[in-house]
């Protein structure tokens, strides 16, 4: 280790020492050492843990993942020779895998009532001298997740001996993961990590893989919680340790995990790994010009009296007000949770009582944006819409396309993946094709004036300019064949004239 790194770690070690002397009580921190066939490296790794860290941590637990050598006996001998009473050594009866070993260790940390757990590899690849640097953010800033990064300092990884193919692979995969998560981490593939136990208790990490991409899955779960990840620079070291990572399989598993997560976030797939109970589905306004909401706003004439049924928190309201509309809202949400600006707002459950509290022929435009699929008896509400719509008024209605090519593929392979949002939102009680939706409107006494389709909202998937471009490109397919490619349908209708 060069003098620069030694100086950094020494400074952090002094700050940790001062912190420990001035503050009491110290959080209960555990160092979790994962080992497998580490008989040649484990002792040196443990001996390099700074004395101040040995003093202040609650426990050091070494989990041997059914090594084929004498790693377990060596760890037990180290504990006795050096008299480290706070050290626990456990031998798995069978090999759990890298991810499986972590699951066992985190469950142990939770059971012991720790506050934080630091993951350290027994093969010496990650410098134990860097432990004070990883602990500083949790002690001084109460950070919940800290990653040691070999890529924060440009050029440091290669100088530390990282092989070129691993460096390039790390860069490519990390760029891909940042793209999919909308994050800016310098790397995702460091095994030097600190987790808050309270955070781990909120994450279903036991559902993750037992393989090496466990680390990627847990980052996606942390991202789903909206938890910030803090990075600190660490040195890179490659010695005689044996790597058990199969590069191609590892890369494929990461690619697939990120795709699974995006499909889940997109509402196209249910995935129990990312369905975190205390993380309610967050609504993202589809602000792309070709999205259903923006197309609906574009279809509303200026200076009209508009009723927005199922208005949510008023996502359309600011755009309608720019068109000098007089906007009225109906939703089940409480008035205090609604954005201000409505001319009037009614908290109503139209499913239970399908009555719109306005006289006949009150509105120029009535909007039902992504609402009708949540109603068991849509005809009753559409009858009320017909009653309160002016003779020359329009209803603008949108709904997801259950016959889109992707859902046809799901059915072809025997899957129907309900999710917490999107077209297959588990709260949707009706799912519509283009024909079904048109038939519903005709049965309810409306004539269809315009039929429009929306593209898949790639801008919500990639959160960058690439998503914007893909959305525009995909819209060409929607124009070519709405029934197959449209993500959602929008219909503009008027009342049928009774003779």
Short description:
Helices cover 39% and strands 18% of the residues. It has helices spanning 3-22, 42-47, 51-56, 71-82, 97-111, 131-140, 156-159, 164-181, 197-202, 214-224, 247-265, 292-299, 317-322, 378-388, 405-412, 434-443, 458-462, 465-480, 482-485; strands at 29-35, 59-64, 87-91, 116-121, 145-149, 193-196, 230-233, 305-309, 326-331, 344-347, 363-369, 389-400, 446-454, 488-495. Strand 2, helix 4 and strand 3 (87-91) form a beta-alpha-beta unit.
Description:
- This protein is of the alpha/beta class and 499 residues long.
- Helices cover 39% and strands 18% of the residues.
- The chain has helices at residues 3-22, 42-47, 51-56, 71-82, 97-111, 131-140, 156-159, 164-181, 197-202, 214-224, 247-265, 292-299, 317-322, 378-388, 405-412, 434-443, 458-462, 465-480, 482-485, and strands at 29-35, 59-64, 87-91, 116-121, 145-149, 193-196, 230-233, 305-309, 326-331, 344-347, 363-369, 389-400, 446-454, 488-495.
- Strands 3-2-1-4-6-5-7 form a 7-stranded mixed sheet, with helices on both faces. It has a 7-stranded mixed sheet with strand order 10-9-8-11-12-14-13, sandwiched between helices.
- β8 (305-309), α13 (317-322) and β9 (326-331) form a beta-alpha-beta unit.
- The radius of gyration is 29 Å and the shape is elongated.
Overall structural domain count? 2
Structural class: alpha/beta
Euclidean distance between termini CA atoms: 91 Å
Q: Tell me how many strands there are.
A: 14
Number of helices: 19
CATH homologous superfamily of the largest domain?
Spore Coat Polysaccharide Biosynthesis Protein SpsA, Chain A
Overall pLDDT score = 90
Percent of sequence in beta strands: 15-25%
Uncertain segments: none
Going across the biggest sheet, name each strand in turn. 3-2-1-4-6-5-7
- Radius of gyration (CA) equals 29 Å
Shape annotation: elongated
CATH topology of the largest domain: Spore Coat Polysaccharide Biosynthesis Protein SpsA, Chain A
The CATH level-2 architecture of the largest domain is identified as Alpha-Beta Complex
- In the CATH hierarchy, what is the class of the largest domain? Alpha Beta
Residues in helices, as a percent range? 25-40%
Largest sheet data: 7 strands, mixed
């Amino acid at each position: 280790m060069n003098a620069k790194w030694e100086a950094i770690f020494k400074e952090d070690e002094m700050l940790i020492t001062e912190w420990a002397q001035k503050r009491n009580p110290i959080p209960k921190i555990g160092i979790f050492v994962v080992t497998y066939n580490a008989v040649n490296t484990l002792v040196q790794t443990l001996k390099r843990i700074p004395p101040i860290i040995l003093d202040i941590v609650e426990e050091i637990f070494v989990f041997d993942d059914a090594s084929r050598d004498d790693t377990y006996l060596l760890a037990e001998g180290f504990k006795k020779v050096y008299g480290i009473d706070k050290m626990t050594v456990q031998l798995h009866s069978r090999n759990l895998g890298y991810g499986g070993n972590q699951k066992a260790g985190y469950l142990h940390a939770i059971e012991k009532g720790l506050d934080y757990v630091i993951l350290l590899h027994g093969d010496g690849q990650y410098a134990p001298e860097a432990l004070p640097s990883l602990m500083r953010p949790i002690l001084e800033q109460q950070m919940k997740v800290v990653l040691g990064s070999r890529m924060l300092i440009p050029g440091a990884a290669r100088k530390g001996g990282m092989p070129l193919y691993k460096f390039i692979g790390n860069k490519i995969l990390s760029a891909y993961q940042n793209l999919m998560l909308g994050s800016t981490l310098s790397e995702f593939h460091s095994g030097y990590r600190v987790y808050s136990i309270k955070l781990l208790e909120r994450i279903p990490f036991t559902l993750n893989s037992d393989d090496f991409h466990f680390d990627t899955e847990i980052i996606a779960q942390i991202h789903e919680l909206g938890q910030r990840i803090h990075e600190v620079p660490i040195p890179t070291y490659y010695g005689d340790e044996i790597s058990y990572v199969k590069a191609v399989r590892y890369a494929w598993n990461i690619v697939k995990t990120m795709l699974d997560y995006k499909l889940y976030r997109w509402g196209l797939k249910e995935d129990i790994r990312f369905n975190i109970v205390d993380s309610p589905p967050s609504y993202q306004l589809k602000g792309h010009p070709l999205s259903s909401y923006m197309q609906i706003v574009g279809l509303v004439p200026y200076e009209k009296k508009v009723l927005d049924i199922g208005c949510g928190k008023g996502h359309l309201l600011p755009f309608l007000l720019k068109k000098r509309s007089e906007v009225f809202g109906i939703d089940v949400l409480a008035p205090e949770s609604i954005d201000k600006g409505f001319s009037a707002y009614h908290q109503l459950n139209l499913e239970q009582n399908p009555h719109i509290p306005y006289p006949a022929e009150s509105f120029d435009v009535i909007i039902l944006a992504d609402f009708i699929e949540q109603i068991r008896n849509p005809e009753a509400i559409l009858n009320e819409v017909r009653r309160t719509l002016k003779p020359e008024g329009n209803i603008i209605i949108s709904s997801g396309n259950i016959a889109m090519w992707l859902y046809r593929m799901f059915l072809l392979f025997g899957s129907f993946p309900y999710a917490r949002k999107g077209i297959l939102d588990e709260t949707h009680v009706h799912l519509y094709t283009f024909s079904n939706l048109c038939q519903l409107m005709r049965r309810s006494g409306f004539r269809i004036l315009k039929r429009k389709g929306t593209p898949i909202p790639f801008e919500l998937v990639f959160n960058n300019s690439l998503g914007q471009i893909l959305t525009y490109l995909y819209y060409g397919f929607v124009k070519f064949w709405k029934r197959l490619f449209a993500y959602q349908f929008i219909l503009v209708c008027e009342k049928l004239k009774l003779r």
